[in-house]
Structure formats: structure tokens, C-alpha cells
Amino acid sequence: SDHMENIYGYLMKYTNLVTGWQYRFFVLNNDAGLLEYFVNEQSRHLKPRGTLQLAGAVISPSDEDSHTFTVNAASGEQYKLRATDAKERQHWVSRLQICTQHHTEAIGKNNPPLKSRSFSLASQGSANSPGVQRRPSQNAVSFFSVGHHRLPTGKRVPIMQPDHLVDVREMMSQAEGQQRDLIRSIECLPVSGHLTSLDQDLLMLKATSMATMNCLNDCFHILQLQHASQQKGSLPPGTTISWLEPKISLANHFKNGAAQNFPAEINKPASVREEQSIAEPCQLTREPEEINPDEELEDICDDKEDDLGAVEEQRSVILHLLSQLKLGMDLTRVVLPTFILEKRSLLEMYADFMSHPDLFIAITNGTTPEERMIRFVEYYLTSFHEGRKGAIAKKPYNPIIGETFHCSWRMPKSDVATDADRNFSAHSPSEQVTLSKDLEGQTELDYYTVKFVAEQVSHHPPVSGFYAECVERKMCVNAHVWTKSKFLGMSIGVTMVGEGLLSLLEHGEEYTFSLPCAYARSILTVPWVELGGKVNINCAKTGYSASINFHTKPFYGGKLHRVTGEVKQNTTNTVVCRVQGEWNSVLEFTYSNGETKYVDLTKLSVTRKRVRPLEKQGPFESRRLWQHVTESLRDGDIDKATEHKRALEERQRNEERLRAETETPWCTKYFLKEGDGWVYHKPLWKTVSAAQTQQTDTN
Question: Domain containing 84 — which CATH number?
């Protein structure tokens, strides 16, 4: 009772993307089991601006920081709150949890459960939907009295016996069967008419029933551990109580919110049948293919991702997906809705990081180790802006294992900064396009060629390898990236695990580097991207290193997309260059000699990549592989795009199953496994070394 006193005070409440965080005066009414809030303390005598029933609520401290927590009511309403510090958050969370537990137990005592019953959509009639029967006055009691099973009668004992756990397991099995029947009934409804499978109330019912069963399974797991601890006196060493992954397959139940029953094989478009019938990749030639840059043409594709319409139209689908996810859950195996996809593969996105080949080639032109490290940092920080297509957070296609992407860039030698020039290309974007077109008539000596190849070398975990080289300047970069994505509440975090290696063979230098994390924020409103985390660039031979921090926006105040960094000489610990600004706007470089340079990334010239036409590409090259999905997205036909995407994913699953059954290992085409990383099969450092050895032997 000492902990059941009413508490009150100011907390910050998150409203929406536009309004953001606002101070509100909160009151915990323990007697009524309510959390109320007012505009300020002076208006406390007025009607509350908002009220949450705490019976059946879930109080969750956020893992984003030490100040934030959420209150999720049984009605589905949520408050996202922020205390002034970790101590105050703990005070509010503990009091709210005590009040919640008290009133939840009271409901169980005062409202005996109903007999087991199943929910039949047929009995509702065509004129009704769950939304029609919902009452505004519906409270937590009604949420807990639907679908309960009568527990076995008998004297209650302090310690749960094993046979009681068996009874619970049987009841849960019955509930899972009823839940599956419910899902099947919803998905068998027509896609058009008065009551459809896309009805928002039915989608919410489908999602909440799924989430409920997942929570019940988690609770049953905890009961089993508690029973084991009571039997043995304590938990076994090393045992942890943690949330389980969903028992219901998201991939099987979530296909863009639509029914799973796709048209029969004979009614499928020819392109879908083609996607499903491509032969097993390892049965195709896996020999590396030498791409002739002369066959590549300047890319005219310009898919900007600025359309927000689909996000608003598919809001119920997003809610459906979010209801099945948990904080920290790995999203690698989750099938995401098609309308949030970009019109390019992840492998092509890596290629777009190379859209400033003049800055890349200029690295090796530096006359000193210091100059070359600074130039690499300048190139590195300017690569992310073009890698993103528009301000909207959309997701590239997940590459199919064995998928490849090839392209190249031609750069006029006159546009590459020399050893005496620290400036970026002086040409405007319009002038750059003209120069690129004029290259067709120039001789080979007038331009440099940068070639790029990427391959998806693993599916689980998803690992991509990519490699770029400029033979004329004897420089290349090799990298492998494992993308790990996690659900963080109202955002999604992607960790780029892996390492890159830049080799400047003219100088005998190697630079190792990593990549920042990426976050998709505000996924329920207008999703946007930000980068976060610390990355390091090191050159062991010269002793120069760079430390770069991508700063995520704080909850209150602060700027978006901020980046800071410094380049130093490790031996003397001397800082030779500092950088600050925004990675997608303006960067400021300050050098040790006092010189300052500003780079406006929005005005920086971009060189279009060169890609082979679709008819000359192999069946597993990105653009040809995803062409039907891309065309459907361009036409705004989400259902058709989903069907093509599903066909590709289903084929990949079948191939993976066949390899497992026949114990056939996957054979990559361009990259070889070396230790924990992946290396291009014919890197420039091996080619140059072999050529030098051969020349020595000849002499």
C-alpha cells in the first residue's frame, strides 16, 4: 500500500512528427487505475486532455535512451513519454507497473471468464464488421472477457504442478487453432465488396490476435522457467528469461496485407512463371564473366523516391506489420510490404556510393600520406548523399543469393584533381552531363575508367561483396557488408557489419574503413533516414587515421544529419584536418594550415554510371532480375509488384531447400571467402603483383 500513492508531475509526451515533444502534467490515479494528463498543473481541475485505463496495460522502458518509456493500454492506445533523467523514469515506471498489476488482478477476480467460444465470421452477416460492434465506452474489462477459457476447478495450490502446465499448453493449442481459423476466414473473404479481407477492422483483428498468441507463448515460456526454479530452488547458472521470437510465421501470414491465395499457376503472368522457372543458379555457369565496358551505355534511369501517397494509403498494412514485431527483433526474415521498396537493388545502392569517381581517383594524386588520407575522408563523406534516392526512407530490394550488379564510370582526366589541387570538380551538374556525353568521341587516353561489380554471396546472414577498381591509377576498393536490421519501436535500425579496404598500389598503402548505421525514423508518418555511429579509417603504413561521428538527432533540439570528424597523425597525435556539417547538405573542412573549404553536396557534380542494356544482362544481374517488380512499381501497381517479388523470394526458398536436402554448398561467382570476409577473385593488387613478377622474370 505504501507504493500505491497517487503521484503527479511533468513529463514530455510525444505527439507526432510535426508537433514533436511537449511538456504535459501527468497524474497517476491509483484508486481508479487511470493515467491522466493536463496541459499544465494549473488546469488540473479541468477535464483531462487524455486518459488511459491501466488495467491490462504494458509499461515498457525504451532501449533508445535512459529517459523514455511507453504506456501501451489494452485498448491499443499508446503514450510515449520522457522523464528528465533515468531516476525519474524508474520512479514513474515502477509506480505505473504496480498500479497496472493491481487493477489487472482485480479484473480477474471480479469478472469470471466466459466459456470457450470461437469467433465465426459467417455469423456476423454481410452487413456487419467488428468495427460496427465496437462501442466508444468499451473499457479494459471487455477486452479481457472475450475468448477466455474456463480454468479447471479445484483447490489452488501455491506451486504450479506439472499437470497444470500441461492443461495450459492444451488450452493454448486450442486457442492457436481458433486463431488460425480466424486468419483463414478473414483471408478467404473477397478483395472487393462490402466486407473484404482488406477491411481495416479485420486487419486490426488479425494483427491483434496474432500479437496476443505471441505474448501468451512468451508468458508460457516464463512460467516454465519459474516452475523449474521453484523445483530446484533457483534458476540454473547462465539461464536467462527473454522474449521469444514469434511462433506464427510472419512470412506466411503477411503478404502486403492481402489474401495469400494468389491466382492459379495458369493465370499468372508469363513474367512471374519465368521468374519461378529460372534454373538453379549453381546449374548455370558460375564462371566469372568479364564485362566489356564498351558494351555499357550511360544510364538514363532516374527513379526518384518522392511519392508519399502509397504510405498514407497503406497505413493499415504498416499497423498490421508493427503489431507483429517486438523491440530488438531481427527483421532479416520478415517479409516487408512491397510499397515501401525503392526501385533498385541493394547492390545497385552500393554502386551509387561511387557516383563521384573524380574524388575517388583523386585520392591517389595526393603527394603526401597526409594529403591522401584527407582526400579519402573527403570522398568518403561525399558518397552517402547520392547513395540515398530522395528524402523518403524506402528500402532497396533484398538481393537474391547469386545476384550480381555491374557498372562503370568514365571520368575525363581533366576533371580529376591533381596533386597540386585540393578543390573539387569545378564543373556544374549540367556541365558534367555534357562532358559525359562528349566522352563517346574521345580516345582511351582522355578518360579514366572505374569498374564496379557486386555480388550477394550469402542469404542467411545477408552478406554482399562489392569491388571497384581504376586500372590506370592502380587503385581498388574491396568490401563486404552484412546488413543486420532491428525493430526499435517507431523506427528501424540497420547495422552495416563488415569492413572495406582501399588499396593505392602506386604508394603501397592500404586504408581500412567501416560504415555507419542507418535508421528509418517515423515509420508511421513520414519516414526519413538518418545515419548514426562512429566509423574509423586507418592506414597502418603511414600512421594516419580518421575518426568520424555520424550524430543522430536528439529527442529535444539538435540538428539533423550532423557529422563531425578529424584526421590525425597517430605517432605525434597531431590533428591535421577537422570536418563538420551535414552529410547530405554542406560540409566544412578545416586544415592544419588554417585553410577552410566548404562543400555543398547538393551542387556537387554527379557522374552517371554506365550499365549494359537489359537484353545483354545475365538472368541474375540486378536490373534484369527485378525488372518486372521495378516496372510494376513505376506503374503504381503494388499488387502486381508484390506478386513478382513473391515469385522471386519463393524461388530462392525452393533453391535453398534443395541445396540443404542434397547437401550442395553454394558456389559464388566473383568473391571468395577469406577468413571472416569476402575478397574479389581477381583483385588489382594480385594482377599488378603478377604482372611485375612476370616482367622481372622476362628481364
Answer: 2.30.29.30
